[in-house]
Structures are given as structure tokens and as C-alpha cells.
Amino acid sequence: MDSATILVGPQAKVYTPMVKPTCARYLTGVALGIAFLASIGVAKGEAWRLEGHDEYVFMVGFSPDGRWMVTSAGDNRAIVWQAAWRPVATLEHEASVYSVAISPDGRRVVTGSGDGRTALWDTQSGMKLVESKHHRDAVYCVAFSPDGQWVASAGGRADGGDAVCRICRASDLQTVRELSGHERQVYGVVFSPDGKLLATSSGDKTIRLWDVGSGQSTILAGHTSDVYRCNFSPDGKQLASTSQDGSVRIWNLVNGQGKVLYQNERRSPCYGAAYSADGRCLAAVGDDGRVRIWSVGDGRLLYEKKIATKALYTAAFVPNNPCVAAAGEDGAIYLVRLPVGPEADE
Fold this sequence. Notes:
By secondary structure, the chain is mainly β. The protein contains one helix and 30 strands.
């Protein structure tokens, strides 16, 4: 598709969407979601490119109601985006921002950066509310608990470093529990939907399931290289994981057994995975710049498309919309209009 360069929002930031020039007039002020993508001529299965970062984008996430999108990148910034895909706040840091998450009520954003800091921000104003430096090394992952009362963060370095996962009060980022066990850096952290469990994925090839109350953990082993990200299914009965070994695995948390959903023949890394809201689909991205979506029930590949020429590190389903957002090495955010699955528009 042809590209068009247009100016959007009060900051007059230049964006390059993957749409025909004749569709550019529809961009400003159009609401989030499928109506927007359809209005600018993005066909089912195609992607729209949104630019805002100058370096690798490590994480993309949404508020539960889909009103806000947050992204974090190697340009020392996290960005809060509003419904019309317009940046409303830029959160400046002194190091790469490896992770970002938004609170369940959408009012606060937490970030983790390469200088070992976590910070809490007001979503709308972009004001920094509190900052802490409990980690000695880079913070690669952060997550809010489902009730918004707690923040988990973890990281480390290639030789291990500070791989302790810390649970803090969301109000002031003061540590209330430390979870030690991983032997190398921790890339992923996520709370279960009921908030009782915490999953961490690590460069030591394992996933740990922590009981938040007791601090005890169970190890999920099966990957043959670094485990990058992990995500619970909406019902909390499964966990999906991605790895340097080129696989996407789904773990049955009732019996602790894992199965390989996908194995890259070239064993190029898989980086990020996300469940759809109903848990019936799983999207994953990796080093080959492709977005893949499977039916979780029977493992069928429903969709596959190369949308970027470089690696994609993160993916998320857009709440209440038949879209997947993905981002990675080229600094762009891609919005894919789904052609298949329970989230697809008819």
C-alpha cells in the first residue's frame, strides 16, 4: 500500500500510516477501533502503521476499556495515546523504557527502565507521581494487580544480576515482598486474573508461578532457551509463553503440563504473546516480523501475515475491537484489522 504523511494532534507530530493518500483526510479525530480502520481503507487482515517512537518499541498495552494505549521504547520515553491514536502524554526517562502497564481503572501508568527505576505516572497529565530505585539492574517488566493495589517489577542483566521480583504498593511503590529464585534476568511478569498468582519468565529457561500470599513458587520447565514473555488466559487456567528457542507454549495450570503451540523451523525467537478477551485466540510475534493468531482450542493457525521488515517484540488485542496491536525494532506500532476468529468484525 502507498504511504501518506499527515499531521495529527496538538503537537503536530508526523505519522506515516499504511493507507492510501486519499484516505488521509479521515484520520484526525476518528474514534478508536474498527470504524476508524475501515474508514481509512484498511481491509480485513491488513495493518495500519502508527509512528511516535525513535527506537525499538518494547511494550504496548491498553486500559481495560480501550480508552488508552501505552507504549514504551528505547528512546527513553513511554507514550500515552488517546482513543483517536493521538499522543496525549510523553513520559520522559533517563534510560530505555523496557516496560509499561496501565492500571485497571486507567488512571495511572507504571514504567520500568534500564537504570533500575520504576515510576508511577498520571495517565492524562503525564505527571510523575512517584519513583523508586529498588532494582540494581534494568527493569524489564512491570505489571499491576487486577485490583490495582499492587505493582510487580523484575529485571536483571545477562549474567543474572538482580533477578529478584518485587511486589510494591501501587500508591507509593514501596516494596512489600521480594520473590527470589530465578538464576538469570526476568523478562516477563504478570498477575493471574484473580490476583492470587504471579508468573515470571526468565533467561534461566524457566517460568515460575508464585503464590502471592505465601511467596512459594512452582517451576514450569520445558523451553530450551530464554523465556521472554508470559500471559495468563482470561479464565486463569492457562499460561502462554514465548522463547528464544522459537516456540510458543501453552501451559495447563491445573496439571502443570505444557504443549508446544508453535515451533519456528529456523528457531528464530518468539517475543510476545497475548490472549483475546474471550480466551479463544492467541496472538504472537517474533523475530520474523509476522503476526500469527491461533485458535487456542484446537491449535489451528487462523491468521499469519508479515507486517514489519524487522523483529516484533510485543502484541496485544485492542479491547472491544477486532484489532491486534504489535510493535518492535523499527519503532512503529502496527494495528491489524482481524479477518478471523471470535474478535473479527462481520
